[in-house]
């Protein structure tokens, strides 16, 4: 602690230079937080997907439907614990830009399949009582200011009602929630109402969710399911939920790799900026460092003093950047719905803090070694 | 006897050329002595001062200070030894411009186990000795050359070192201000019993010392009482 004043005082030597360096580091870590949230948004579904859940879809493409009768056949397959289905609705709420996922499901089966979705019991009961009932995730409900009891109009882009009417109106009976890794942007309504009211496609669904008893047998059950429907008019492709979600995410490109490349470039630049600042700061006060050595500072103390300066600068800039980045991320998804899980995760925060200190140490290392190896006699001669 | 130097040699290499800066030098300094090291540029006096300070190592020979041989100590041991035994006064003061006078004086004390309150007490005493109590919070930029050198002397004495080494302490000052600094060194020697070795070109400054040592080409040319 007694050396803190000495370290801080050295930063006051060129206030503008110190501020600019700290500002550069701050910007880098704001980017780290923000790009981290984007990467998480694209990969979160993959990382939190249940290991015991499989997805069964049409072998050719996900937009082709499967018979609803498959459900009972799937449930009979040995190793399958539970099965339910969903269908992509793809409607528009007021404006195209208000995107969020809408799917008709069987309420009890679906919530049994996804126990991580939390819905109060009275709202579940209301959903079971109300054929036109729907539930929305907290993110979407807050985004549009929906309350339980509201009528939610959705205009169909594909699933018209009998008679050609595109306007579907749902009664919002519940708002589901969950931890930060849960996608809380979706909107679910009852399949029985949808199936009865739609103009075509009765008896058909988009895909199936399967819960298996033993995740280690996933590969075996995948083969069994697909074998069951082989050579039928609607052959299936079964995969783990992780692979399914990853397939969706990969449609937008390898976002994880792109964000890592961008962050890598940013950090290399910042390392050069901070390293140059530290090198310059040490170079211009060689004689002062020589004095410290002359009065008895050891090589290790010199190394520690200069390293501490680097860590101090990186610490102020980096932690400020992480804080501001965290605030920016908490302001919400910048796309207005395309990134439903937009969060700066605790794991990324810890990695960020580790990067802050690593940046401080690496940027200060060369000047610190220079200070450590400094010959006091030569340094004093430079005066 | 506080300092004993015998058969001291220091050579430097400049390409293939070997330069003997100090040759077979013998020297003894008694406790409480105020020694002026004189001689022309390149005579080896600053090199000798650096060797006595443990800032440099001899090529051969013995340097003993207060009964301890320092010529064979490691870099780390020498650093610890300097912190305990040496107070260095520089020609150009060499204060840290970002620190106040008091904080500059405190720098050697950071290497000790003294508490903050104890350090402040030592700093106050040193400031009082050099007559700068009222300038404690001033940064070097706001002090005159003479005041800066007084701060430099306070920094050198704050740990109560065994030996004070001064390298041209008045070299950057006018005659009047330089006399004030010499008065202070004289007082430290006479009133506080400090042993001082001062390198100087200035015969006027050297006259304030109790002993003179003249060096020519790395050897002691003459020694006489003042």
Write the layout of secondary structure elements.
The complex is a heterodimer of chains A (383) and B (226).
Chain A: H1 4-11, H2 15-48, E1 53-58, E2 66-67, H3 70-76, E3 80-86, E4 102-105, H4 107-113, H5 121-129, E5 133-137, H6 138-144, E6 151-155, E7 167-176, E8 187-190, H7 191-197, E9 204-205, E10 207-212, H8 218-228, E11 236-240, H9 241-250, H10 255-283, H11 286-294, H12 299-330, H13 346-373, H14 376-381
Parallel strand pairs in A: 4-8, 5-7
Antiparallel strand pairs in A: 1-10, 1-11, 2-9, 3-10, 5-8, 6-7
Helix pairs in contact in A: 1-12, 2-9, 2-10, 2-12, 2-13, 10-12, 10-13, 12-13
Chain B: E1 3-14, E2 17-29, E3 34-38, H1 45-52, E4 60-65, E5 68-69, H2 75-85, E6 86-89, H3 101-106, H4 116-130, H5 145-157, E7 163-167, H6 175-190, E8 195-199, H7 203-206, E9 211-216, E10 219-225
Parallel strand pairs in B: 3-8, 3-9, 6-7, 7-8
Antiparallel strand pairs in B: 1-2, 1-4, 4-5, 9-10
Helix pairs in contact in B: 4-5, 5-6
Descriptive overview:
The complex is a heterodimer of chains A (383) and B (226). With 383 residues, chain A is an alpha+beta fold. Chain A has two domains: 171 residues, no CATH class; 203 residues, no CATH class. Chain A has 14 helices and eleven strands. In chain A, strands 4-8-5-7-6 form a five-stranded mixed beta sheet. In chain A, strands 3-10-1-11 form a four-stranded antiparallel beta sheet, with helices on both faces. In chain A, strands 2-9 form a two-stranded antiparallel ribbon. The mean pLDDT of chain A is 89. Chain B is α/β, with parallel strands linked by helices and 226 residues long. Helices cover 32% and strands 29% of the residues of chain B. The model of chain B has no long low-confidence stretch (mean pLDDT 92). The longest helix of chain B has 16 residues. Chain B is globular, with a radius of gyration of 17 Å. Chain B is built from seven helices and ten strands. At the A-B interface, helix 1, helix 11, helix 12 and helix 14 of A face helix 2 of B.
């Amino acid at each position: 602690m007694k050396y803190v004043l000495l370290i801080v005082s050295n930063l006051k030597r060129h206030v503008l230079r110190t501020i600019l360096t700290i500002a550069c580091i701050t910007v880098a870590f704001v980017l780290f937080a923000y790009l981290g949230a984007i990467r998480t948004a694209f990969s979160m579904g993959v990382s939190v997907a249940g290991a015991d859940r499989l997805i069964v879809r049409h072998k050719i493409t996900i937009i082709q439907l499967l018979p609803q009768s498959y459900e009972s056949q799937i449930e009979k397959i040995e190793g399958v614990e539970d099965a339910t289905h969903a269908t992509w609705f793809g409607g528009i709420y007021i404006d195209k830009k208000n995107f969020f996922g809408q799917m008709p499901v069987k309420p009890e089966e679906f919530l049994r399949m996804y126990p991580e979705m939390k819905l109060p019991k009275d709202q579940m009961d209301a959903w079971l009582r109300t054929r036109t009932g729907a539930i929305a995730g907290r993110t979407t409900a807050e985004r549009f200011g929906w309350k339980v009891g509201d009528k939610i109009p959705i205009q169909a882009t594909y699933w018209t009602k009998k008679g050609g009417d595109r306007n579907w109106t749902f009664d919002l009976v519940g708002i589901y929630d969950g931890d930060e890794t849960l996608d809380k942007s979706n909107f679910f309504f009852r399949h029985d109402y949808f199936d009865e009211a739609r103009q075509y496609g009765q008896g058909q669904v988009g895909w199936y969710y399967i819960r298996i008893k033993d995740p280690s047998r996933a590969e075996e059950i995948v083969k069994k399911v697909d074998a069951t429907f082989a050579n039928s008019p609607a052959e299936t492709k079964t995969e783990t939920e992780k692979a399914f979600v990853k397939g969706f995410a990969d449609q937008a490109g390898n976002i994880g790799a792109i964000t890592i490349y961008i962050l890598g470039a940013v950090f290399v630049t910042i390392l050069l900026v901070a390293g140059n600042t530290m090198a310059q700061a040490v170079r211009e006060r060689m004689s002062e460092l020589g004095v410290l050595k002359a009065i008895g500072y050891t090589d290790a103390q010199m190394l520690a003093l200069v390293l501490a300066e680097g860590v101090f600068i990186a610490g102020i800039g980096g932690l400020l950047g992480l804080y501001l980045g965290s605030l920016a991320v908490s302001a919400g998804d910048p796309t207005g719905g395309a990134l439903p899980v937009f969060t700066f995760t605790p794991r990324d925060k810890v990695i960020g803090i580790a990067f802050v200190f690593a940046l401080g140490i690496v940027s200060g290392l060369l000047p610190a070694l220079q200070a450590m190896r400094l010959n006091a006699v030569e340094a004093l001669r430079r005066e | 006897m506080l300092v004993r130097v015998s058969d001291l040699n220091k050579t430097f290499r400049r390409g293939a050329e070997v330069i003997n800066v100090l040759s077979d030098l013998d020297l003894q300094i008694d406790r409480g002595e105020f020694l002026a090291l004189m001689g022309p540029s390149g005579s080896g006096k600053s090199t000798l001062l650096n060797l006595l300070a443990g800032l440099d190592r001899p090529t051969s020979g013995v340097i003993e200070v207060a009964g301890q041989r320092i010529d064979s100590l490691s870099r780390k041991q020498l650093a610890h030894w300097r912190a305990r035994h040496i107070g260095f006064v520089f020609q150009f003061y060499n204060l840290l411009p970002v620190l106040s006078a008091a904080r500059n004086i405190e720098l050697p004390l950071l290497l000790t186990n003294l508490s903050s309150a104890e350090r402040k007490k030592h700093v106050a005493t040193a400031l009082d000795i050099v007559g700068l109590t009222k300038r404690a919070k001033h940064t070097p930029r706001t002090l005159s050359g003479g005041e800066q050198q007084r701060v430099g002397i306070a920094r050198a004495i704050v740990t109560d070192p065994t030996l004070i080494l001064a390298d041209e302490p008045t070299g950057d000052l006018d005659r009047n201000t330089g006399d004030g600094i010499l008065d202070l060194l004289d007082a430290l020697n006479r009133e506080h019993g400090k042993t001082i070795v001062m390198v100087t070109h200035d015969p006027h400054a050297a006259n304030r010392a109790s002993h003179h040592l003249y060096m020519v080409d790395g050897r002691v040319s003459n020694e006489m009482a003042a």
